[in-house]
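Reviewers asked in the last cycle whether our approach scales beyond single polypeptides. To address this, we selected a multi-component target totalling 596 residues and predicted its structure end to end. The input consisted of the following lines:
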Amino acid sequence: MKTILYRSLCTIFLLCSTLAQAQLDIEISGIGANQIPIIVSGFDGESNAPQNISKIIKSDLTQSGAFKLIESGNIAANINPASLTQWKTKGAEALATGSIQKLANGSYDVRYKLFDTLKSSELSTLTLLEQTPQLRTSAHKIADDIYQKLTGTRGIFSTRIAYITQSSNQYRLEIADADGERVQEVFHSSEPIISPTWSPDGTKIAYVSFEAKKPIIYVYNLANKQKTILANFKGSNSAPAWSPNGKQLAIALARNGLTQVYLINADGSNLRRLSNNNNIDTEPQFSADGNSIYFTSDRGGNPQIYKTPISGGNAQRITFNGSYNISPRITPDGSTLIYVSRRDGQFQLFSQNLSNGQEQRLSDAAESPSISPNGKYILYTPGAKHNFLKVVSIDGLTQYTLKTKSSNIREPAWGPFTQ
Amino acid sequence: MKMRPLFTPIFIISSIFLFNACTPPVNLNSNIPVEDRGTTSNNANQTATTNTSANDAANDPLNNPKSVLAKRSIYFDYDSFTIKEQFLSTIQAHADYLIKHPSRKILIQGNTDERGGREYNIALGQKRAEAVRKSLALLGVSESQVEAVSLGKEKPKATGEDEAAWSENRRADIIYQ
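The resulting structure, written as structure tokens, was:
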């Protein structure tokens, strides 16, 4: 019975207009198993506002796969809770409505309310004051609030993503909203940029650049637009990964022969060697509690994922299926490992429950996964040389595509919560 | 009574421990990362080479397209990181040159074909560069003259998804600085 739900596909093309040069289009396929039926009404006054707030909210909620949107026409913001039962008969369990009003100083007063139609009660309300270009921010805050109140999980609609694009011989590090809007270039280079990763507070991005004819790890400060070198030791420097408190990074260095895992303070001081063997150890990732490092190692002959305590000690092997398992990523609650596994010659996205070892295939051709800060979604590159990124929910049921006008987009990194 | 050399088993055992996985982190405060102001070399204090005159440059075998030194690339088989016999003479020639010109430095860049993860391929490319570096070291080249780095699959010489392109990219290049 559930299989029928899983198999039915619903493709919606949503074209989002934007002020930026590049734009990402969203194509959604796949339906989550238990969707909450909700009405999102048009907001009073939004036809006169520069952004259609209810449309952005509906787009966010649809994209999450957790909601089924029920059309209703426009419902006045000052709705009487006693009249909510009529919306229950339309199949809705929740109803959101609101208003947007321009103030004398040019900013906007945005208000919204969320109602439970079954209990005829008010669940939530927000009053937001935003400047015009930030109206998308208001919409995303409201969508986050709806998502959190109805699912119990924090929403990611206000987060940002970073990724690399390549066109002819120009590489660009770009940032966009989680829905692909408001694309900004961080910087560009004539040499490759790889492995971008956000600091936990969202103020910096560490990455690897080949401008010096060898891989060097830099940290870019988004506030002052300055880049500094984190690691330029003899040999190769790559695979930066921030600790959960942002004070140190795990990195891969090849300064004494083969690639090994090291720890380094965020200011580049206090280098400490963590792995000490004659194999390849790379792609370090901190565990959720910051006490262990997951990493890729070929010590068993083929690349597999291992875990080792930061304090030193034996490494424990984590992946056992397949002969090529790389790119470990850990969910923020520490429960699940996401990785790339080669099966029948194709690189695919997999998850493993770290309590019972159970594995689930999440995608077809995939590389460089990045987990959303609420642990519910994985952003990844669907194979080589594509014009889009993909997102799949961690239960594998919902997926959508983020399209771009660039010829080659890869290495996505999902940014943290920043409020 | 025969005296057993006790140090030998201890030496072997301690070597095994040294090469095992994961010892406690070692503090390496002595090595401060180089602050790169945009130069292409991390050898900021490179001494001037001795071949500065045009006459010397013309006689420098590095500039002779017919010399074996003109060969700067070593190619590798799939999933292999050992130097094939056909490249030993190339490596020998560069070793001889570097020993004769101790102020010359090289960067060895290892590459992989386009299959597989980016970061793992950085490590595999490093393995190729390291194989060349080790061969040069065994032939007597000073460690200070050689830096082995990896470009992974990021700078392919041949684009294409066939064995012809892949074999062209499984390569270590010697770059004179």
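The two ends of chain A are 41 Å apart (CA to CA). We regard this as preliminary and will revisit it once experimental data from Aim 1 are available.
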